[in-house]
């Protein structure tokens, strides 16, 4: 019996359409927003995934094309982080945080041979690590900048006591920015108890081996923790030194 999940076809399209329609009904009854919000999002997501699937089919064949796809993903992640942080053009500095986070993980995985130097392995693992680093960077930058705005009096007080600008701002942002690491930590602490993450499920369905699925998942989770920790640490420095600001 095949273990493949969600075969493309008419049945899949009908089920997705029904779910989107039911969500639209709930939107209408509960007056959440415009009823067509979910159907439009579903259609957009389907079109984007179709386009990405075609691109990846070609990109996975060669190492250079896989690297190009990862570069485009990195650019998109940097733009997204800057926009979410509401930092204007200074938010482009957050690309440094993302580069440090991803750079701390991917070379280690590739040089060690744990992840083969092939597009079919690099793109999914790199995408997961990059996505986690992007989320942590965006959240850390936003909370750090919010903290400086809301607690600017404390920053001025620290300056009056002789602390440098960097140290004064760091006193305010350290706790707020560190909160960006909590989702990743909670996910790692509760894996297998509360949720079965996507990497585990994907490998399990593909290989049928729970042991192999667990090995891949712990590799992904620990890699995410390292990438997010490095990215948040650099983000804090960038905000503290006013490279990223509002």
From TrEMBL:
<dbReference type="GO" id="GO:0005886">
    <property type="term" value="C:plasma membrane"/>
</dbReference>
<dbReference type="InterPro" id="IPR005226">
    <property type="entry name" value="UPF0014_fam"/>
</dbReference>
<feature type="transmembrane region" description="Helical">
    <location>
        <begin position="66"/>
        <end position="82"/>
    </location>
</feature>
<feature type="transmembrane region" description="Helical">
    <location>
        <begin position="41"/>
        <end position="60"/>
    </location>
</feature>
<feature type="transmembrane region" description="Helical">
    <location>
        <begin position="218"/>
        <end position="240"/>
    </location>
</feature>
<feature type="transmembrane region" description="Helical">
    <location>
        <begin position="94"/>
        <end position="115"/>
    </location>
</feature>
<dbReference type="Pfam" id="PF03649">
    <property type="entry name" value="UPF0014"/>
</dbReference>
<feature type="transmembrane region" description="Helical">
    <location>
        <begin position="121"/>
        <end position="141"/>
    </location>
</feature>
<keyword id="KW-0812">Transmembrane</keyword>
<keyword id="KW-1133">Transmembrane helix</keyword>
<feature type="transmembrane region" description="Helical">
    <location>
        <begin position="191"/>
        <end position="212"/>
    </location>
</feature>
<keyword id="KW-0472">Membrane</keyword>
<protein>
    <submittedName>
        <fullName>ABC transporter permease</fullName>
    </submittedName>
</protein>
<feature type="transmembrane region" description="Helical">
    <location>
        <begin position="6"/>
        <end position="29"/>
    </location>
</feature>
<comment type="similarity">
    <text>Belongs to the UPF0014 family.</text>
</comment>
């Amino acid at each position: 019996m095949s273990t493949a999940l969600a075969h493309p076809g008419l049945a899949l399209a009908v089920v997705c359409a029904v779910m989107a329609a039911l969500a639209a009904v709930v939107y209408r009854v509960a007056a959440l927003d415009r009823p067509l919000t979910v159907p439009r999002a579903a259609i957009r997501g389907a079109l984007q995934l179709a386009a990405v699937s075609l691109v990846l089919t070609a990109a996975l064949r060669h190492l250079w094309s896989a690297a190009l796809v990862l570069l485009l993903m990195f650019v998109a992640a940097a733009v997204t982080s800057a926009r979410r942080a509401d930092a204007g053009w200074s938010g482009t500095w957050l690309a440094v945080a993302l580069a440090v986070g991803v750079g701390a993980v991917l070379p280690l995985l590739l040089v060690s041979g744990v992840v083969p130097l092939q597009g079919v392995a690099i793109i999914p693992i790199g995408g997961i690590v990059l996505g986690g680093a992007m989320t942590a960077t965006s959240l850390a930058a936003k909370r750090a900048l919010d903290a400086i705005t809301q607690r600017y009096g404390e920053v001025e007080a620290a300056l009056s006591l002789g602390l440098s600008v960097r140290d004064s701002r760091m006193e305010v942002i350290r706790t707020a920015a560190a909160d960006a690491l909590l989702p990743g930590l909670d996910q790692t602490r509760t894996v297998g108890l509360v949720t079965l993450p996507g990497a585990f499920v994907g490998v399990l369905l593909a290989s049928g081996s729970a042991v192999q699925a667990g090995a891949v998942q712990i590799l992904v989770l620990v890699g995410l923790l390292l990438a997010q920790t490095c990215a948040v640490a650099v983000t804090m420095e960038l905000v503290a030194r006013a490279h990223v600001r509002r």
